[in-house]
Amino acid sequence: MGFLAPALTLELDAGAHRLAAQASGRVTRHTGSANALGGHGALGIAWRSPREAGLALDARLEARADALDRFEEDTRQQGRAGLGATWQASPRAWVELSAGAMARRYPNRPLITESAQGEVQADETLAVGAGPLMLGGLGVDLEASLDGWHVDANVNRLDRAGVQVGGLVAATLGPWGVEASAGWWFQAFSTGREDAGSVLAAGLTATPAAWWSVRADARRLASDSTHPEGRFTQWQALLSVAFSTTSSLAAPPGPALGVTRLADGRWQLATDAAGAARVDVVGDFNGWQVGATPMRPTTPAGRFVVELRLPTGQHGFMYVIDGSRFVTPAGVPTRDDGFGQQVGILRVPQEGRP
């Protein structure tokens, strides 16, 4: 198993959002409907060990601020620390367990109010995922999750605990990504009040370069409650721009580029594809099927590797970047495939021959 060199990432996220809400009871100090335009900003730092067929760790700190021209110009400030572990069961399946603690503060709320000026939340998440599953040129990821949380507020009647079950489908094609998710949640308050509801969301992401991206989201949140103030329907539209920079910490040299014969008889294929979300190898040995033989990311950043056990003979092969861009392998003999591209050639000798 073993760990690859971890990476330290600095992340900046800023954007604008619009909110519309219709309440059948009371939301905070507002009755009826609300429309608001606001902004949000976040600064985070994350420590990650790369995900491979083994165990990976993720630790992060984040500070976030939201401002909305609603509810008497309410604002929210929050900080969060979290730790996660991911078991990569195979190149296409993983299990993730994470936990975190968050502190929230509402500086514009008066001290004499039934709403909280501050609260602390502990949360846990268990997620199971599969992907990328290749559908044409699309790489599709599936994920199911179970979330739990407990909140202590400065107003005792707002102490609560809850749980949410959700599912997510995400697809990527080159620099574009789209995802859709649905969740059903329930929470109980210390006063005996119970809320239940659903959340539906869709997002579109464009990643022109590895260090920045633009994302648009739409969400619908519906809540029912044993108390009138917990009944509402809310719509959100968000537009965000995110920037990040990553530095590898004490990175080992990693696998050599090209084709290497290993001591156990397998063949190691390694290529560089900076900024790629995924890389596959296709060839005579897998029927040239994209997605049949995914490569895994390794160090240094942007390098992908896979180990194969191949039969004796000559095998043509190529790399496929993000499901659609075919790349000729470097450092090996090539031949014309008859369609204007060069295919790499890997010759596997008989057992016992060099």
Secondary structural class: mainly beta
The overall average pLDDT, rounded, is 81
**Range of helix content:** under 10%
Uncertain segments: 25-33
Tell me the strand percentage band: over 45%
Could you tell me the radius of gyration in angstroms?
25 Å
Strand order of the largest sheet: 1-2-3-4-5-6-7-8-9-10-11-12
The strand count comes to 21
Largest sheet report? 12 strands, antiparallel, barrel
What's the tally of helices? 0
Described by its quaternary structure, the protein is single chain
The sequence of SSEs as H and E is EEEEEEEEEEEEEEEEEEEEE
Q: End-to-end distance, in Å? A: 29 Å
Shape: elongated
SSE arrangement:
Layout: E1 7-27, E2 30-48, E3 55-68, E4 75-90, E5 93-105, E6 118-135, E7 138-153, E8 160-173, E9 176-189, E10 194-209, E11 212-225, E12 232-248, E13 258-261, E14 267-272, E15 279-283, E16 296-298, E17 303-308, E18 313-321, E19 325-327, E20 334-336, E21 342-348
Antiparallel strand pairs: 1-2, 1-12, 2-3, 3-4, 4-5, 5-6, 6-7, 7-8, 8-9, 9-10, 10-11, 11-12, 13-14, 14-17, 15-18, 16-17, 18-19, 18-21, 20-21
